[in-house]
User: What shape does this take?
Amino acid sequence: MKKYNKKHSSSNPHDSGASHVSGESVFIDDRPEQVGELHLAIVMSEVAHGKIKNIKTDKAKDHADVVTVLTGDDFCDNTWGPIVKDQPLLANKLISHYSEPVALVVAKTREAAYEARKLVEVSVDELEPVFSVDNAIANSSYLSDEFQICQGESKEALEKSKFKLEGIFENGGQEHFYLESQACISYPDENGNIHIESSSQHPTEVQHVVAHALGLAQHQVVCVVKRMGGGFGGKESQASHMAALAALATKATGKPCRLVLTKDDDMKITGKRHPFKNWYKVGFDEKGKINALEVNFYADGGAYLDLSPAILQRAMFHVDNAYFLENATIKGRVVKTNRSPNTAFRGFGGPQGAAVIESIIEDISQKLKVDSLEVRKLNLYDDSGLETHYGQKVENNFLPKIFSDLETKVNYKKWRKEVDDFNRSSVTHVKGLSLTATKFGISFTSKFLNQANALVNVHTDGTVQVSTGATEMGQGVNTKIQGIVSEAFGISPIDVRLMPTSTEKNHNTSATAASSGSDLNGAAALVACQEIKINLAKLAILKSKNDQEDEYNTERDIDTSKVHFKDNMITSSSFSYSFKEIVALAYMNRISLGARGHFKTPEIHYDVKKGKGRPFLYFTNGAAVSEVLIDKATGDTKILRTDILMDLGRPINEGIDYGQVAGAFIQGLGWATGESLEYADSGELLSHSPTTYKIPSIQDTPREFNIEFIRNNTNTINVRGSKAVGEPPFLLGLSAWNAIKNALHYTDSKTFDELTLPATPEVIMKQLGEGDLI
Amino acid sequence: MRDYIQFYLNGELHKINNKLISLNLSDYLRYEKNLRGTKVVCAEGDCGACTVMLGKKNHSTGKLEYQSVNSCILMVALLDGSHIVTVEGIKTEGKLNEIQKCMVENNGAQCGFCTPGFIMSLTDMFENKEEIDEKKCRNFLTGNLCRCTGYGSILDAALSVDKSKVRKLEDLYSDKALLDFLNNSKLESVEVKTDEFEFYAPNSFEKAIELKEEFPKIRIISSATDIGVQINKDRFEPHRLLSLQNIKDAYKLDIDSAFIKVGAKVSLSALEQGLEGQEEELSEFLRIFASPQIKNIGTLVGNVANGSPIGDTLPYLIVTDAIVVILGPSGERRVNFSTFYSGYKQMDLKSDELISSIEIPRLSKGEILKIYKVSRRKDLDISSVNAAFKLKLSEKNIEDIQISFGGVGPTVLRLPKLEKELIGKEFTADVFRDASHKIKNEITPMSDVRGSKEYRYLVAKNLFQRFFLEVEGSRI
Assistant: This one.
């Protein structure tokens, strides 16, 4: 099934593997309760939009085990937001979405907290809610201004185009469904200080939001993240919200306070992947070469801004996916609706952007009756240094090679013929085949976020502890940094331990997001390693010259370029000492064995007003081809086979990267096919548990699933020549959606250009129509 | 009569006679025993993070069996006479066991939150299956959700396990007292009464009926795969529960040439095993029905008594003319399944009665049966529409036909008008096409979270056409 070499030296297993499989890994709610610890439950609104008249907490407070009930008025400042502080921590004036937190019950037991929350009465003057993009546009309900990116003259080019298509493309939201729901514990520290243990991708933001909400200075709050039971973007900004609630309870009671959401509450309260509705026009020639593209993106931001503008921007950047747009006018705006505030989710708008053009290409191929792969190849960025619609040159571009290698490997022409033959003969089923790409821009699009710091401490026995701003959510960032540091010192990975992320060791950090965790934090760790290594190398040189010195002075300039750290040894042509020996000697010689490294991504810039720049350090590329089988009676779809080819540069850990590619693809597959958010007319989320919200199960993965990596040594710009992997393969889930679209093109259906995403069985049946099978 | 329940946990005997018996097992493990390796995500038996192994004597076969169960919806009271093994209890000599090692080496764990559940489901698989292949792995892991790995590395891990190095739980826990407890204890009546909660597990149907007479509102709890969810989600608060778990007769599974007789406590897994090689369509359906964790404790009778309009076995029981065997103070009565339900969760069952078994007539020669389940996700999903059709042909004509749909009305439906109309007609595409268009006259689907009304109408029609194609295909 997999095609990576497990014996590869870089493939040491996940650093938490052993404790995960034995159940010994500690997540938030696995921490034993302290004496006197209190439990929290959130009171949620039961309308989507309305003015709060009053919140009656008396009855809940009368409950024997309830300590207090808190509302927004109890905060020093009740507002928060990762970009703009527009969201109440506990709504106390206006309800803006169904299940919005309005009060917090603090009780001696979990049961009491959940019982008592039913006793809180919230009276509301209801207002008309807005639930769709169309409705929002009609009501001029927006969260952002319009953004624009232009290249060439799309209007003129469109007019001149031989063929034109226009349409609307809609894609739905997606629940993160991290297995560990939002969770945190707030502990009181001396002198009114607060210590938070959180399941967060962004401890620094937790620290800042808590401090701001409680009126504390930043140095009074420490946030520690040991690990998360999954994040996927859902704990980038919104974990801070939960932490502020727990901290408020600690401030009010002086006790440790535990807030662990149930899966149902978590799904109802927190934001999702942004649904988008997009209007497009495309012009192309008889071969399918795209001459002009115009897209108006509307992202459903939900009730509050959260990270929406950045997510919309990334959608606009990725509307080209892997295809050159000579003339393009891309506009976008975030609408405000009465839904939970939509937020970061793996891909961060990128999938929503790429979905548009991949869908368009499938339509072009249908219109011209040519294989969609030919249309894709015709439009693919080549290696001539073309610029994206936002003005970034596409360099070191392996996309043409990926396409041709994959096409050859899977024998695409033969495969297509088999699909054609099947569809000619089958009455009950129809197959589809499609090959789609990913070209994912790596870097935060907000320039200042592209920095990281790391603390590396070498102990006197030669073992190392590393702390960075990266948070471990399963993606293996700690294992990769372990690999980077162990290789830098030439020691075994088991001698390097990654420590919990804490704002007292690494401050002013960025969220572990944008696939950048290993790039930024790994690079920062390497900077710190270099500093230590220079001292150790100098010491080894001095020792080799005179073994008997009282105290070696490493503060002078010594050329260390010929000294190597390998196989637990520090060597040059003239000496060879064990790493441990030199480390121990360094301590005796009062030489620092710790260092803090800081890294900032070079060469990136972007001008939002002009819509031009170089927002990304590089691109991670790949392609996938999927074959689907649709049951024409029910719309039920099976993924028969998927082949993925990824360019990850020189992977730091192929085992970890394989897991990222497989996991991201299946998550993308879920978004594109099966995961559907269902709401009542009132705005209440109905699909708020796995009984009604279906993420892919082990039966939903492709029956044959091949993942391979391409060798690429040209990406010298990133740490150790590797490439980021977290998000890019998510977009390849679109290969299955496009294969479904392709399958529909084989049927008699005439309305296939209306296929929406996700393509659930019901959505597919809408396209297949009511025709008879017999 | 005992006034406490008793079970082993990771090799240690526990006796409980207080309100802790009303907790679900996962809360008991995590918050009372500080065994926090067992995780809870959905609290409704749908994700498998809480999976543990339950060892118990199979009263149908007399053998000790360890099987996976969802601890989040399993009430502690139901553990009487069993041995629970959690992820903390499976290391060998203090070291990771073979399954655990393979999961580490293959990076089968990413965030780690679902991992203990997967480990326990794999434990079940290696405990109970001789031959392992990818398909079996998928089937055994149907009830475990992972959001990180995409499952590939978990499959790799499972397939790389050296079976000869896996120690069976019976071997790992071979203490004589424990084995004696599991194999040789008699089924005794149990009554545990606390201020807020009473639990009864009599050891005969007679005593169970007496309890039903004494407490008309007492709720029978079978394996709690639905009640457990209702309790967790605040939709039901138990005060007085009656379990048939200590009634030996309830575990009877008789398969003879005329009937499949399924006792009230026969688990779906036991039924699946018992049917192996027989009644192909039902066997196959049971294979894709629910997850191992649910099937290992869920029962056919529970499915019937719950009366959901979308219960997956119900259309099958209708078209086979199954018989519901009901016990009450005045003895036994037998009700044809087609007349058992009168409306949404309304059934022909009085407050002092209980269902002791279901008797399913075997297919006779020439009868063709098909069962269908349509859901958003193929596995472990509640259906939007399900159906069963039974057909007998004589030469070119339809001699007899039974048609049943679930999910298209307040209860599972039989379509007598259409059946009547079809009998005697020729078996042709035209006849079935016409008939399929008339299905809409006898069903009343609604729109809900699982599918729209329009979709259900369409699928009902198509399934009937599909049935024709499959029968026709098998005749060629």
Remarks:
- The longest helix of chain A spans residues 517-545.
- Confidence is low (pLDDT under 50) at residues 1-9 of chain A.
